[in-house]
Amino acid sequence: MGDFEVKEEDLAGRIGKLETSHGILETPAFFPVVNVLKKEISIKDIMAVGFNSIITNAYILKKNNIVKQDIHKELDFNSIIMTDSGAYQILEYGNIEANNREIVEYQNQIKPDIAVILDVPTGKLEDREEAKMTVDETLRRAKDVESIINTENIIWTHPIQGGRFLDLLQYSAVEANKREKYKLLALGSPTVLMEKYDYDTLIDMIFTVRSSISRGKPLHLFGGGLPHLIPFAVALGVDSFDSASYILYARDNRYITRSRTLKLEEIDSFPCSCPVCSRYTPQELLEMDENERTRLLAIHNLYKILEEIRETKIAIKEGRLFEYLQEKAFSHPSVYSAFKRLLKYAEYLEKYDPRVKGEIKGLFLYDENSIKRPEIIRHYRYLDLIKPMHEKAIVICGDKFAQPFILDPFILKIVNEKYMEADIYIAYPFYGLIPVLVSESYPLSQFEIPKSLSESVIRISSDKANSILKAKYKKVELIECENSKLHIMPI
């Protein structure tokens, strides 16, 4: 139980399969939060959208005596159920009427597929010593119940705390990773950051945790329910999410799209073709009974979250997750900031990005951010490592030539005449230099670039080419470079 197998990878993200007592959970996966005390939306409604996993609160179930034995039978949901422990209530109210052992024993009794110990959330604590207390207490509690958790039928989750204090977060992650009985690790307390649009810090937190734990352990993000952030978290290695955002937003007449949220009162027509949006107009929803309007908005919101999960999986399978992040980045300035922060970890993303993928897809290169994608990073590394065969280099500026360059008649003629006396390169935006003799190799001829390039792309590409040439060659001859986009310097 709890075996995790990675099937597809792109950047540091992956599609995986997690074995549970009620079937295989394909990740990235989303767990809609179900509050059994609220009746606005039913579990059957959630299933009808297409979800085979839900999360509900074990403390609420226990306190209200709702589930006594088998949670799947009593909730009439024969698929994957995760139970949270009541930590959110601690965050909101300061304490709950149960202790860690009681919550763990209760979850052993009702047998969810995935369970969580009763941790102490860091939340929005600004005092480092208080934050450290939440880390130490969570680690202590996890160790305290190791001897009683049922690992035969249940995947147990070890929360990771520390909040915005990255050193504490790293310590918490490293210690949690050592606990072999916990097959799932989970980053806590992101909600307060998302409420403030502090996505930069959230990116730092995810990277800190994911880079501090075993690659083979799946990572869950508590409260990660905004579609525009899901692919960024996945790209860094988050495997699953949960959130009540879909219903909380619905109660406030907020309509989720995959790029932002809208107020229902401000929408003239729905930009969506889900069953709700296909059947009703915004005005018709506004005129409905509040409970029914909330239910329908919640269903729509779930469709958007599920669409985002599926689109992210498609991007991973096609090897275009980086391009997808670039598209998403322009949905909001805070999301763009998150994208730029993620690029700080470009070397980490390259490390786990697969070198060999199934069906080759050409690269779409847009701006200076594209230079941080793994394929370009590897190309620059290759340029740094290759040893020159000659003291002279011939550089052909490639603006006018067809790809692959080695097959262009003009370039082929130069190669046939000169390859014995000089190393021959194509100068090209984004790549800097492309060695002609390997220019058919992926991705040196499988790419598209804009006709109009930014000054930063030109500068970075030119600087890379010139630094390589200066470091490796005594003489550089330029061909067709008078009106080139790049500024290559002869030697």
TrEMBL record:
The UniProt keywords, alphabetically, are: Glycosyltransferase, Metal-binding, Transferase, tRNA processing, Zinc
Which residues are involved in binding Zn(2+)?
C272, C274, C277
- Domain (tRNA-guanine(15) transglycosylase-like): residue spans on this chain: 13-333
Residues at the catalytic site? D84
Q: Which cofactor does it need?
A: Zn(2+)
The residues the record assigns to binding substrate are D119
Return the EC number: 2.4.2.48
InterPro entries named among the record's database cross-references: ArchSynthase1/Queuine_TRR (IPR050076), TGT-like_sf (IPR036511), TgtA (IPR004804), tRNA_ribo_trans-like (IPR002616)
Protein's UniProt keywords contain tRNA processing: yes
Kindly state what the record says about how the cofactor is bound: Binds 1 zinc ion per subunit.
What pathway is this protein a component of? tRNA modification; archaeosine-tRNA biosynthesis
Q: Which GO terms describe its biological process?
A: tRNA wobble guanine modification
Stored Pfam families: TGT (PF01702)
Checking HAMAP family in the record gives: TgtA_arch
Function of the molecule: Exchanges the guanine residue with 7-cyano-7-deazaguanine (preQ0) at position 15 in the dihydrouridine loop (D-loop) of archaeal tRNAs.
**Similarity comment: family membership:** Belongs to the archaeosine tRNA-ribosyltransferase family.
Q: What is this protein called?
A: tRNA-guanine(15) transglycosylase
Q: Which organism is it from?
A: Acidianus infernus
State the gene name recorded for this protein.
Answer: tgtA
